[in-house]
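Journal club prep — side note

Before the paper discussion, L.F. wants everyone to see what a predicted structure for a comparable chain looks like in token form. Sequence:
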Amino acid sequence: MTPERPPGADAIPKAGNLDVAALVEPSAPPAESSVQLYAALDLGTNSCRMLIAQPRGSQFQVLDSFSKTVQLGAGLEASGKLSRASMARTIQALRICQKKIEKHNVTRMRLVATEACRRARNAREFIRQVRRETGLSLEVIQPEEEARLAVISCAPLVSTRTEQLLVVDIGGGSTELVWIGLSAVPPEDRPRAIMRLHSGFVQTGDAPSARVVDWISVPLGVATLKDQFADVDDDGARFALMSWFFEENLSSFSPYNAENPREGFQIIGTSGTITTVAASFLGLRRYDRAKVDGLLMTSDQIDHVIRDFLVLGPEGRRTDPRIGRDRHSLIMSGAAILQALMRIWPTDRLSVADRGLREGLLYAQMSADGVLEDGPYE
């Protein structure tokens, strides 16, 4: 139940001792008029992203997409409100999404907003304005659903050897972590067991299922963590403080204090930060999802990239093509979160996922509608 990599595309299907499937959505031909199309929109603290796709066998194919940095949460940490400028930028992006939905005649969709709209005092006013000016109905989802959708989007990257799984989704306004036990699930069924979480973290039935040990939504993402330490001038000191502060906020997450074996443990990380670190490690001057999604990186490789970012300094990061102008101001807060996670969990490897909330929304809608075949899990 996952998009397949096009034949001949670069891939890293296996790395180390993990059977990691590095899978991406192939480009699709125009949809047949009789095929139901689905849209998934993720409006976060920093970006607005949308996919339009059609079910295809046990997978889906993407027909159209949109991604724009809108900085909806700019200034939210200080004021508690969405600013007029950030709302205007976001509505402009949402108009483009509305035109794409209309162009493809999409009627089945979920359009969700996350941490910025959960926290802003004027979020309801903003959502009403979006509906009035674009015709789109945004739904503010709670942290548990955001975490669950991120988890099921990563199901294709779960190794059959994984017994303990940590899925990390670093967003603009929050970071979701979900700890899942898979030891009771037959190895060949472990990726599919993750997909079955689309119906909820608590599973019913007699079949062995993935067990959610614990989950947490930390109200610190790349934008909100950066804002917390905006008054620290020294680049290196600011990075160290951000990493320490994020770790402090994990103290209530029960697996943090537990003894967990390295054998059979896997971390999957999904976020723009993690894919940027991966692309920088690969030396990509032009981003290539086929090379990044499913890549396995060691802690040493991640640390090396982060040290390079620190050596570059703010101006060097701003002009570095591997980072990009949209992400340069946020990459170090994201890197601080990533380094803290790799420091405290019992593994020295991370599976990189270029997938997240949008893919999870699509899988959940299609699974609920029964339009995905229960075929072999490639």
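L.F.'s comment for the group: Confidence is low (pLDDT under 50) at residues 1-27. Keep this in mind when we get to the figures.
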